[in-house]
Design a protein that fits this description.
The chain contains eleven helices and two strands, in the order H-H-H-E-E-H-H-H-H-H-H-H-H. By secondary structure, the protein is mostly helical. Helix 7 packs antiparallel against helix 8 and helix 10 runs antiparallel to helix 11.
């Protein structure tokens, strides 16, 4: 109404805000104020556990990304950083391995800058140095009753060919033209080889540390024992376990008996010390006071002298048996009681 009056009287409107009917009646709805995304609180969906919801959102309350992203340093390896330099050229070139004696040629990829270099994996080919002997050395120092010179030469050739793999040498010892040769075990081959090497080292002035020790008899016994061990039947294994348990019980009883013997010896020594101390105290009292001996009249007693003799004999017998307890491990207090009882009631 005021606006109409102002319009009729041509009065200018002031800077005050316009008052509407809704403002007067108070029926205007309040607009919702939208908070910024930083202060917006995300509600946990119904049915979702609190721990799972805490894993989905970080401290900044950001919604988890749909695609996996990496925003910081991780444990993964860094990707290769390809520069703008020119790639080194590679060529398919043939090569020969100096470790081989047949001069066969193969091909592989290699850099152009590495052309003319030796095959890099040839350095891993390690050869064992097998000693050589002359005919004079063999006749003077290496003669054997069980080995001929031809067999010894063949043994050293095979050792050089197979790099001292005696299992392979023994498997091929009687093959081909040597089928009728004398059969040799692995221990025999090793024994002959190491004995020849030690003899050559000795005659050529080598040190004792360079000699190789090998005991063929011990190795044979060791393999026989292993074969017997692995060829046992279940009944034999069970019997062995039972014997081991019985042996442990016997050892436990022996330790218990030794412990009781030591305790008895300690008790005897403690009693002897106590008796010695009492005797020394009596002697000290007699020497300090110098009392005159007073003759005490002997009172009549009804004790039989034979009973006194029996008790003295029993005391000496007990003392003798106790002193021999270390030599008789089965003696105990029960045995002492039986001996005393039999002696007292023998009549």
């Amino acid at each position: 109404m005021t606006e109409d009056i102002r319009d009729i009287m041509d009065i200018e409107r002031g800077p005050t805000p316009q008052v509407s009917k809704e403002d007067i009646l108070g029926t205007q709805t309040k607009k919702k104020i939208s908070l910024p995304s930083g202060n917006r609180q995300t509600r946990r969906p119904e049915g979702m556990a609190r721990e799972v919801f805490a894993l989905l959102y970080n401290d900044k309350k950001d919604v988890p990304p749909v695609i996996e992203t990496e925003t910081g340093p991780t444990y993964k390896l860094q990707k290769a950083r390809l520069g703008m330099r020119r790639v080194r050229p590679w060529v398919w070139a043939p090569f020969t391995n100096p470790a081989r004696t047949d001069n066969v040629s193969f091909s592989h990829w290699r850099r152009v800058a590495d052309e003319g270099k030796e095959y890099p994996f040839a350095k891993f080919n390690k050869k064992i140095e097998i000693p050589k002997y002359t005919v004079i050395e063999y006749k003077e120092h290496l003669m054997s009753e069980t080995w001929t010179q031809e067999e010894t030469d063949r043994l050293f050739d095979m050792c050089e060919l197979f790099d001292l793999r005696f299992i392979i040498i023994q498997a091929r010892w009687n093959l081909g033209e040597y089928e009728n040769a004398v059969k040799r075990s692995t221990e025999d081959l090793k024994d002959r080889y190491y004995s020849v090497c030690n003899t050559l080292t000795k005659i050529r002035g080598g040190s004792i540390n360079e000699s190789k020790m090998y005991d063929a008899e011990h190795e044979t016994r060791r393999k026989q024992q292993l074969e017997r061990l692995y060829s046992r039947t279940p009944q034999q294994i069970e019997e062995e376990q039972m014997l081991i348990q019985e042996m442990r019980k016997i050892e436990a009883r022996k330790r218990d008996r030794d412990r009781k013997t030591q305790d008895l010896q300690k008790l005897i020594s403690a009693v002897d010390k106590q008796n010695d101390s009492r005797k020394s105290l009596k002697i000290d009292k007699k020497t300090t006071h110098h009392r005159k001996r007073v003759t005490v009249p002997v009172r009549p007693t009804r004790v039989d002298p034979n009973v006194i003799f029996n008790y003295l004999f029993i005391y000496n017998l007990i003392k003798m048996l106790i002193s021999r307890t270390l030599k008789l491990p089965l003696l105990n207090f029960r045995t002492l009681k039986i001996v005393v009882y039999l002696h007292v009631h023998k009549e």
